[in-house]
Amino acid sequence: MTTKEMVYAALFAALISVLALVPPIPLGFIPVPITVQTLGVMIAGAFLGKKISGISLILFLVLVAIGLPVLPGGRAGLSVLVGPTGGYLLSWPIAAFCIGYATEKVWGSLKVWKMIVIHIVFGVLLINVIGAPFMAFITNTSVWAGLVGGVAFLPGDCIKAVIAAIIVWQLKAISPIEARANR
């Protein structure tokens, strides 16, 4: 891993941490709030590619685990990773890696609509498919109830998917993926 790649990984971990400053929207019927940090996960995956984005999100989870207040409300620690939000958080490196992998595969013919589809499939659906059953397990409810509760995230996450696609499209020329493609 080059120094530049390490810097990108650290910068995106920091970016996702800064997105925690946007106040979360609590939902009364499930214990997981709506946050904008998933926007950062989608941007990281599509901008950095599979390897660097996966490392960046693992770094972010390490920051959470050691107790740095990088989640909304200043939450942190191992207790957060094994609480109701834990499945969503643990899915972020997987989602970023999958977004990066899919983006790298279509990079030569990349269009905004393709990025939106990639973000919806791997950024919205994958995170919810992993996070909702974990939340259901922790809260001792049925998986079906967890998935139904997770539907509340879909409208906002789809908007974030579109925003992330537009941002990455605008930054495509300076992406590490572009640099690797031109070698």
Q: What's the gist of this structure?
A:
The protein is mainly α and 183 residues long. It has nine helices and no strands.
Provide structural commentary:
This protein is mainly alpha-helical. Helices cover 69% and strands 0% of the residues. The protein contains nine helices and no strands. Helix 2 (37-48) runs parallel beside helix 5 and helix 6 packs across helix 7 (143-150). The longest helix is centred in the C-terminal third of the chain and has 27 residues, at 112-138. It is globular, with a radius of gyration of 16 Å. The protein starts with a helix and ends with a helix. The mean pLDDT is 94.
- The helix content, as a percent range, equals 55-70%
**Beta-strand percentage range:** under 5%
Envelope shape: globular
Tell me the Rg in angstroms: 16 Å
Distance between the termini: 16 Å
Q: Which stretches of 5+ consecutive residues score pLDDT under 50?
A: none
Sequence of secondary-structure elements: HHHHHHHHH
Oligomeric organization of the protein chains: single chain
- Alpha plus pi helix count: 9
Would you count the extended β strands for me? 0
Arithmetic mean of pLDDT? 94
Q: What's the main sheet like?
A: none
Structural class given helices, strands, pairing? Answer: mainly alpha
